[in-house]
Amino acid sequence: MVLFTALGTLSVSDGDRAWAPSSPKLRQILALLLSRANHVVTFEAMMEELWDADRPKTALTTAQTYVYQLRKAICREVSPEVMPLTRPSGYLLPLGPEQRFDVQVFQDLAGEGRRLLLEGAYEQASRQLSRALDLWAGEPMADVPCGPLLTAYAVHLEEQRLHALELRIEADLRLGRHRELIGELKSLVTVHPHHEWFHGRLISALTRSGRRSEALQAYRTVRAILSDDLGLDPSQELQELQQAVLTTGSTPARWAV
Q1: 6-64, pLDDT tens digit by residue?
Q2: Engineering a disulfide at 257: which of 48, 119, 145, 173 sits with its beta carbon 3.0 to 4.6 angstroms away?
Q3: Which residues is 99 bridged to in the sheet?
Q4: Where are the alpha helices (DSSP H) in 136-177?
Q5: Burial 106-145 (b: 16+ CB within 10 A, else e)
């Protein structure tokens, strides 16, 4: 089983042996092919990724040489079965049943977790979403020089990770794990200070854990951050949450998970 990884540093492993191209350009091409696995990466897209608007006159020939070098390295270091294939308009990296790509595994697990959450199977949803998130070993393609296409792909992956994290937190809250989540949520609002969903879940978790004064302070904190950084007030949902905590010591129905 050949495993390609991009949720962290880029690597290809076959059994106990892990390998990655030493050349930054070859890592970039491999990452681009993986980002569109089983689909053709056109010559134009490859040149855009490698050089953007500053492509040399020999861009096409140079890109083809890079792919040739990548093929030789994969054949030597991994297996000829996972070499990029030439197509009339570009190149295709085929991934079959004997190859796995950690991004696809993450997406499959996250999708299953979301389905389970919607069905009310909170324990199973939390487990599947945790498995998905555990695949992340750092920033996507952390050791790859990213041009415009891979930069956009990395942003897309980060958004998927955040959404999976939200779903896993939602599942855990529905399981009554409010106290256990407080530390994680405090960390998340520090890393993502403008992410109101995380702030709202922290306020809710503190309230349902009997820590009303801390919940109100958490609201004052997010209000100050949004005002100072963005010139905005908290969303209507956050304002309603704060008012309910202030007047009744509880959370509105939409937050009472």
Answers
A1: 999 999 988 778 899 999 999 999 999 999 999 999 999 999 999 998 899 999 999 99
A2: 173
A3: 2
A4: 148-174
A5: beebbebbbebbeeeebebbbbbbbbbbebbeeebbeebe
**pLDDT of 256 higher than 50:** no
* Structure token pair of residue 190: 């520090």
- Give Cβ neighbours of residue 185 (< 8 Å, ≥ 6 apart): 169, 198, 201, 202, 205
Smallest Cα–Cα separation from 84: which of 68, 103, 63? 68
- From CA 147, how far away is CA 48, in angstroms rounded? 8
In the chain, % helix, strand, coil (3-state, to 5) comes to 65, 10, 30
Distances in whole angstroms, Cα of residue 27 to Cα of each of 24, 33, 82, 139: 5, 10, 15, 15
**Which of 102, 100, 106, 121 shows the shortest CA–CA distance to 161?**
106
- The whole-number average pLDDT for the span 178-193 is 97
Give, in order, the Cα–Cα distances in Å from 144 to each of 9, 54, 88, 140. Answer: 8, 19, 27, 9
- Within 8 A by CB and 6+ apart from 27, the residues are 10, 20, 21, 143, 144, 145
Q: Global pTM?
A: 0.92
Q: How many Cα atoms within 13 Å fall on the side-chain side of residue 155? A: 7
The count of other CB atoms within 10 Å of the CB of residue 1 is 9
Rg (CA), the chain: 23
- 8 CB burial (10 A radius; 0-12, 13-18, 19+): middle
Q: Residue 198 corresponds to which amino acid? A: F
